[in-house]
């Protein structure tokens, strides 16, 4: 058995694939935010006794520390004279000039009094301008030890070109402050732009202690090696990932996008939008030609992280998102969440605020229990809470509950627009693959709001992220900044050879002796501030290779910005970064066809759409290939529910996916 375990904010999802028969088993268990390892192990135990070959884990430990701003006891060492890198940042204000008068600069990831500098200077080619000051390095290391600061990020100017000074600083820290957990910028992100490199390095240092502790606890209790999902769409063994924990910051959402991409392409949809609706948040990604888009301009919370990650927008619009009244008297939903504990009012665990899930329960759109009856829901508690909110707003309870869901649907649609309309893509060209426990609940409203052609809900939608963990290759990314308008073939060969050697060594430690290397390059027109990434061909690096990369850059620039200077000698092309991804391929599970309908009877209960009426409730297991359900109706299964609004039709395809479209 290969097992995938995805720890979300509300539920921990588990999927197991039998490598001999291809049989897939799924289950869910409530997450345990105080100690995520408890939920992880409880989920595996629910599967029963199996011969486990490997385990892949999607974790939110690093993400939650950043989103909740639980960062403390963090120090920063940089080049003498550059102690205000974090204060100056990029001098840009979120939301542009309209916000500049009101915006208050948030606290920096490291306050000024915990920033120390060391003498020594390199130029942009990595040549030493001033020697490294061992004396100052020792002084700084002892100062941090005396202050009890144990997580330290080191970022020296131009260390992407030559890491020597940073490595000497690490040796001094090892000697003078052995308890310190250290992150070097030349290890984390060997790429220029010192502000982003500094913050990315500090984020890595900030999450390292928590990640190491969590992985160590899990390894001890599990008693076997396991792998961890990375933000770039690859996995890495737990023993390696503790050295680069920043690579896991979008661990779970990345797996969901990959799982949905495989399910959609198997069913004949190569380009889709994916929407992963959980209890705490909703994650949106775009898949083009079977591959999720990758970015290095991502951020987690308010921290820019320039590591390669699947391009995902996250909004606080999950089942646990809290409905509240603003000081102006308007109804708002999220981003705050009731989470797994205490959870929505209907959980009966002491929750005191109305959530999106309470609105669904009150309107009858989800059953009075979750997980096939494992978690009973208190409908009366939801009704009382919504009635109290309705009285404050001067609306009926039904109108209030519908309004909560409407705001939640618009929050989700805004996230989809950010990844499509704002990137020059027409949202009407893409079917939406929606999954996660709460993902399918607003499918019909999203079709209307965005003009989507259809919404596809995979089988076991609540477990798609965990399934995605089993579809993932081992993958490591390496980058080197080399800014030039005239890249010599010899230099290109040297840098790519060096990056491929690094990637090969890492994959060798993971047990792959036949790795695959993917090259890419970041280029721009001379004088531009930002670059465009294009894939670079494999094979020999010669004049034809050089011309092909330039041609791909012109094409990509034209597609992104509507113009290119392909045949204009006045606009030279500048090479900025060269990149290599080292991939250790695995055998992916096969998405199997649905042969015939299973067991399950149709029932009736009152459900409110435009009015409250007795509505057919279908068990998804009983719907075979070709089955059609016309709204109003509700389709229920173990981990999720699909309300079909009046005027919509749901059809079951040959793989068991539910495809919803307007009549």
Automatic annotation (TrEMBL):
Source organism, top-level taxon: Bacteria
One GO biological process term: glutathione metabolic process
A GO cellular component annotation in the UniProt record: cytosol
Enzyme class of the recorded protein, top EC level: hydrolase
Domain Hydantoinase A/oxoprolinase: 197-477
Keywords: Hydrolase
All residue ranges annotated as the Hydantoinase/oxoprolinase N-terminal domain in the record: 2-174
EC number: 3.5.2.14
Molecular function GO terms recorded: 5-oxoprolinase (ATP-hydrolyzing) activity; N-methylhydantoinase (ATP-hydrolyzing) activity
A Pfam family assignment: Hydant_A_C
Domain Acetophenone carboxylase-like C-terminal positions: 494-655
InterPro entries named among the record's database cross-references: ACX-like_C, ATPase_NBD, Hydant_A_N, Hydantoinase_A, Oxoprolinase-like
PANTHER family: 5-OXOPROLINASE RELATED (PTHR11365), HYPOTHETICAL 5-OXOPROLINASE (EUROFUNG)-RELATED (PTHR11365:SF23)
Protein name listed in UniProt: N-methylhydantoinase A
Organism encoding this protein: Nonomuraea rubra
Upper taxonomic lineage: Bacteria, Bacillati, Actinomycetota, Actinomycetes, Streptosporangiales
């Amino acid at each position: 058995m290969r097992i995938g375990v995805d720890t979300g904010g509300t539920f921990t999802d588990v999927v197991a694939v039998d490598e001999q028969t291809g049989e897939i088993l799924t289950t869910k268990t409530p997450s345990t935010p105080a100690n995520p390892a408890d939920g992880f192990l409880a989920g595996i135990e629910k599967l029963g006794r199996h011969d486990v070959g490997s385990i892949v884990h999607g974790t939110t430990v690093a993400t939650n520390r950043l989103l909740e701003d639980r960062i403390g006891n963090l120090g920063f060492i940089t080049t003498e004279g550059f102690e205000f890198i974090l204060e100056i940042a990029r001098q840009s204000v979120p939301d542009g000039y309209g916000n500049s008068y009101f915006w208050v600069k948030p606290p920096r990831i490291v306050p000024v009094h915990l920033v120390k500098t060391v003498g020594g200077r390199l130029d942009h080619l990595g040549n030493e301008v001033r020697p490294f000051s061992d004396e100052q390095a020792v002084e700084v290391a002892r100062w941090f030890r005396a202050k009890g600061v144990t997580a330290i990020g080191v970022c020296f100017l131009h260390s992407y070109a030559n890491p020597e000074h940073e490595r000497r600083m690490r040796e001094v820290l090892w000697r003078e402050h052995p308890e310190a957990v250290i992150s070097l910028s030349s290890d984390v992100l060997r790429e220029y732009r010192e502000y982003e490199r500094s913050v990315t390095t500090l984020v890595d240092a900030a999450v390292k202690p928590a990640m190491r502790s969590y992985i160590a606890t899990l390894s001890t209790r599990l008693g076997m090696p396991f792998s961890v999902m990375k933000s770039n769409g690859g996995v890495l063994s737990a023993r390696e990932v503790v050295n680069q924990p920043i690579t896991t910051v979008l661990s779970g959402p990345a797996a969901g996008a990959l799982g949905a991409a495989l399910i959609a392409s198997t069913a004949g949809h190569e380009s889709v939008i994916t929407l992963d609706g959980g209890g705490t948040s909703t994650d949106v990604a775009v898949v083009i030609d079977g591959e999720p888009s990758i970015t290095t301009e991502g951020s987690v919370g308010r921290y820019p992280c320039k590591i390669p990650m699947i391009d995902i927008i996250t909004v606080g619009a999950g089942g646990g998102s809290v409905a509240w009244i603003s000081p102006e008297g308007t109804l708002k939903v999220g981003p705050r969440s009731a989470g797994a504990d205490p959870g929505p009012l209907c959980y009966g665990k002491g929750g005191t605020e109305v959530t999106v899930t309470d609105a669904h329960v009150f309107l009858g759109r989800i059953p009075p229990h979750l997980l096939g009856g494992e978690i009973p829901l208190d409908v009366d508690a939801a009704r009382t809470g919504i009635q109290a909110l309705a009285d404050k707003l001067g609306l009926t309870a039904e109108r209030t509950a519908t309004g909560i869901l409407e705001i939640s649907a618009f929050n989700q649609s805004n996230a989809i627009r950010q990844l499509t309309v704002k990137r020059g893509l027409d949202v009407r060209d893409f079917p939406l693959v929606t999954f996660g426990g709460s993902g399918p609940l607003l499918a019909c409203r999203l079709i209307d709001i965005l003009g989507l052609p259809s919404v596809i809900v995979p089988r076991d939608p609540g477990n798609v992220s965990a399934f995605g963990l089993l579809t993932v290759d081992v993958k490591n990314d390496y980058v080197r900044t080399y800014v030039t308008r005239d890249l010599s073939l010899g230099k290109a060969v040297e840098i790519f050879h060096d990056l491929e050697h690094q990637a090969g060594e890492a994959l060798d430690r993971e047990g792959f002796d036949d790795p695959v290397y993917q090259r890419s390059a970041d280029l721009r027109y001379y004088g531009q501030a930002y670059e465009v990434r294009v894939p670079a061909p494999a094979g020999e690096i010669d004049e034809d290779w050089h011309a092909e990369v330039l041609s791909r850059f012109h094409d990509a620039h034209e597609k992104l910005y509507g113009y290119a200077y392909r045949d204009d000698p006045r606009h030279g092309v500048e090479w900025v970064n060269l990149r290599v991804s080292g991939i250790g391929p695995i055998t992916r599970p096969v998405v199997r066809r649905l042969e015939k309908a299973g067991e399950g009877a149709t029932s009736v209960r009152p459900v409110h759409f435009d009015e409250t009426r007795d509505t057919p409730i279908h068990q998804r297991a009983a719907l075979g290939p070709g089955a059609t359900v016309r709204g109003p109706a509700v389709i229920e299964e173990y981990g999720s529910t699909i309300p079909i609004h009046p005027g919509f039709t749901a059809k079951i395809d040959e793989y068991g996916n539910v495809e919803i479209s307007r009549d």
